[in-house]
Amino acid sequence: MQAYCMKCRAKKEIKNPKSIVMRNKKLATHGVCPTCGMKVFSIGK
Fold it and tell me: 27: how many CB neighbours lie within 10 A of its CB?
């Protein structure tokens, strides 16, 4: 799974991905950028 890292300004593979359900019942994935360690977030499976 990939997400856009705002600090690196590039799409990166998510490190330690976790699936969550947002308030509006949509699925999302969040984790950590492997390069800089910043939190990344991706809506979808």
Answer: 12
Percent of the chain scoring above 90 in pLDDT: 93
Q: Note the pTM of the prediction, 2 decimals.
A: 0.79
Residue type, 45: K
Q: Chain-centre distance of CA 12, in angstroms?
A: 9
Beta bridge partners of 29: 19, 42
Q: Tell me whether residue 17 is exposed, middle or buried, using C-beta atoms within 10 angstroms of its C-beta: 0 to 12, 13 to 18, 19 or more.
A: middle
Task: Say how far apart CA 4 and CA 11 lie, in whole Å.
Answer: 4
Q: What is the rounded distance in angstroms from the CA atom of residue 35 to the CA atom of residue 45?
A: 22
